[in-house]
Amino acid sequence: MCGIVGYLGKNEKKEILLDGLQELEYRGYDSAGIAVIENKQLKNFKAVGRLKNLRDKTKEYESKGFGVSIGHTRWATHGKPTELNAHPHMGAYSFVVHNGIIENYQELKKELQADGVKFLSQTDTETIVHLFEKNHNLNNNPWESFKKTISKLEGAYATLLITEADEETIYFAKNGSPMLIGFNDSDVYFASSDTPIIGKATEVYYLEDGEYGYAQNGKIHLFDKNGEKTFSKQALATDKAMAQKDGYRFFMEKEIYEQSTVMNDTMMGRLLDDRIEFEELDKDLFDNIVNIKICACGTSYHSALAASYLFERIAKTPCQVEIASEFRYKEPLLRDDTLFVTISQSGETADTLEALKMAKKAGLKSLSICNVDNSSIVRESDAAVLTRAGIEKGVASTKAFATQTMVLWMLAIYVAQAKETIDNELLSQELDAMRHTPKALLVADELHPKMTRLSKRYLHGHGFFFIGRDLFFPLALEGALKLKEISYLHAEGYPSGEMKHGPIALADAELFTVALMPKSLHYEKIKSNVEELCARDATVLAISPEPFDLADDFVKTTYDSHPMLEFFEMMVVTQLLALEISVRLGNDVDMPRNLAKSVTVE
Ligand code: F6R
């Protein structure tokens, strides 16, 4: 998501930071900033928007001679993309940059405010620098103050801190968010991934969770809970393009693998021990709401369809879903007791945006679920929940879909809590299942090679049907869309119970059917639908935790007791199937023909 760069040494620091941040811009950007201390002088610059704006702002500034420096490019999660919310965050004499989410920041912030500290930003990060200075004002020892600060933080972080109280040192800590240290002679670099330091550092150490320390005189002092420790450096990669993809062949592949970790970000601060909370939503958002209407396009529409089952089943609230381009011209009848929800990865999709404007004009309250803060759809909506998937580069959406679906699932529980349609037992079962989701999204060691092997059997034929029931029908639609987009093979998603009403006429050995057969939802029903297809000689790839002898190919999943865990696990299988078929066909996985990442035209 956000990106961090740090440098300690005698070279021009501004250029090192800006070049490094440029390399991280592909991860997302809405603002950026740098802070430098040299000759005991602290300098700080921030700018909203692309990095170019920060470059323009720092044109006159040069930073030669020994010094310490930190920089950050931001993708908003807490607080709008403004200069005040951009990192580095400032105390009275120190600066901090941070990736991740400090879960207990509100508690820490309240304590600091009670001591008279004034906060400038809406971010969780700012608490780190104030807490550090509070400790330092008490003990006058920067290192002890930093240690004490880190010990109070809960959540995920990778953080760098510089201070005029110790102007030749960079303090660092990592827990749950990536951070590495690069070395070249006495120069020390920090970064949230390889790319900013390739070509500059020659060796690298990848910090482990729970490690922290400081860089001083070209040396690293590294600690963990057992005290100071030694570490070994390794040679740094030299291929930037490869490093951007974190070693994966394609951005789409990287994003499939990332789903498990980004899901933690999506849930952080929202999934609490005993309930779901959205601090970004006004408590009265659902007051007087008796109906939910969701409008979206493509993959986002599929997450909306899945959500409609959850809103009705768990929150007992009627929910209709509409394709935005259809909604716009159907002269819809809108009532003001309806909450109008839009879902969009980019926040710029023209059809969805126009649908939202229509609903607003009709006086409906609006909520957007989006991956890009400050996008047109977020700005246009009364309220917004960010999916926190990080920038998605692959044109075929993967992690955006997963995180949208999670936000919608959490929202269904949130509404159910407000409307008291969920009892404590069901609530705790749902929350427990959510906690297992990151695990369900992990790509099991044997799964990817299996999908690579299976894919060679599915390169021809006269089409694919992805079939499922209930929640697994939208997933079938999404599986088919993924395959279509990157393989250019014809694929359709269908409710499995509907096959006998027409499409089964297509069944023969050259019709490939991908059957989503969850154990926890209508297993017997879907099984009999798939048996009907097997009887007509269709070629069936079954995905299920339950062995199914009639299948030509079978992928065994592990979760079998909660539909949403089965949903997420099967989603990964369908994504990998599409990916591997596309690779075998020699297509451009990340930039399929005729498609664009953001569809800003009608
Ligand atoms: C498919 C895909 C598209 C988008 C659709 C809407 O992989 O990405 O179908 O889902 O164009 O885009 P957003 O979500 O940005 O509104």
Automatic annotation (TrEMBL):
Write down the Pfam families for this protein, in alphabetical order: GATase_6, SIS
Which biological processes are named by the entry's GO terms?
Answer: carbohydrate metabolic process; fructose 6-phosphate metabolic process; protein N-linked glycosylation; UDP-N-acetylglucosamine metabolic process
Q: Name one GO cellular component term.
A: cytosol
Catalytic residues at 2, 597
Q: EC number(s) per UniProt?
A: 2.6.1.16
What keywords is this UniProt entry annotated with? Aminotransferase, Cytoplasm, Glutamine amidotransferase, Repeat, Transferase
Q: Which residues form the SIS domain?
A: 281-421, 454-592
**Designated name of the protein:** Glutamine--fructose-6-phosphate aminotransferase [isomerizing]
Q: What HAMAP family does the record point to?
A: GlmS (MF_00164)
The subunit field of the Swiss-Prot or TrEMBL record says: Homodimer.
Protein role: Catalyzes the first step in hexosamine metabolism, converting fructose-6P into glucosamine-6P using glutamine as a nitrogen source.
Catalytic activity reads: D-fructose 6-phosphate + L-glutamine = D-glucosamine 6-phosphate + L-glutamate
Annotated ranges, domain Glutamine amidotransferase type-2: 2-218
- Recorded GO terms, molecular function? carbohydrate derivative binding; glutamine-fructose-6-phosphate transaminase (isomerizing) activity
Q: What class of enzyme is it?
A: transferase
Q: What is its main location?
A: cytoplasm
Q: What is its subcellular localisation?
A: Cytoplasm
